[in-house]
Amino acid sequence: MVLPNPQNLDHHSPTFQWEAIRFLQEVSTEWESSLQDSWENRKERWTDFTRELAIKIAESGQWNLQVGGDRILVDFPSTGGVGNKTPLIAPFLALQSISNICIPKVSTRGETGGTIDILEAVGTRVSLGLEEFQRQLKKCSIAFAVAQEGLAPLDEALMKVRKMTYTMRCTPLVVASILGKKLAVGCKHLVVDVKFGPDAKFRNLEDLRRAIELFQEVWTRVQPEGKIECVVSNNYVPQGFCFGRLLSLW
């Protein structure tokens, strides 16, 4: 499972597309086969793999985010699901109660309708450059941007191929995607909303347990001075009264 060096490839080239398809299929196949084995026997291998991929995603861009002062960079990502509103609600609740934090929200367009898709549906411009993103972050303590050239472009490229190869629910890919983007903007502390249910990425308790352990182990290794908490939320019932790119805000 060797991913080509993202610095040396055009993410839109046919060569990268074919290499990415091969890579994702290998990861998915090996992950599925590992589900038949003891997690304790495979945990270290998958932790190392997920850590390496998260670092490659973070280092595929060139952003060096600077917010100044003593403010701490944190985020409240979610693994997503039907009717998911956590990434749009939790950050603003946190800003109301904690004064010295900044929340740099970096997301990739979802499988059907993620955070960025919802924001774009109501006219929010999310393709921001570094200077504009920093300016918004300093002024409002929160800013939203989509993964793009300069900002975790490897995640954007892999996400497109993951949708084609039906690997959106492969646990190490999910964890590396989320943590790689947070690492790219220098987040220190995370509270991860891990959805569990029939339409979530984790549909049984064993998948859920492995995902939580990967989140915790990988973040501890890539951000030793940071902290991470995983909160399991019920995706058997969608959040709120409506779901869809536009209706999710109601």
Describe the structure.
The protein has one domain (6-249): Pyrimidine Nucleoside Phosphorylase, Chain A, domain 2, CATH 3.40.1030.10. It has helices spanning 14-34, 39-59, 86-97, 115-121, 130-140, 153-165, 171-184, 205-222; strands at residues 72-75, 101-107, 142-146, 189-196, 227-234. The mean pLDDT is 86. It is globular, with a radius of gyration of 17 Å. By secondary structure, the protein is an alpha/beta fold. Helices cover 47% and strands 13% of the residues. Strand 1 (72-75), helix 3 and strand 2 form a beta-alpha-beta unit. It contains 8 helices and 5 strands. It has a 5-stranded parallel sheet, with helices on both faces.
Total helical segments: 8
Could you give the count of β-strands? Answer: 5
Largest sheet: 5 strands, parallel
CATH architecture: 3-Layer(aba) Sandwich
How would you sum up this structure in a few lines?
This protein has 250 residues and is an alpha/beta fold. It is 47% helix and 13% strand.
Q: Could you give the topology of this structure?
A:
Blueprint: H1 14-34, H2 39-59, E1 72-75, H3 86-97, E2 101-107, H4 115-121, H5 130-140, E3 142-146, H6 153-165, H7 171-184, E4 189-196, H8 205-222, E5 227-234
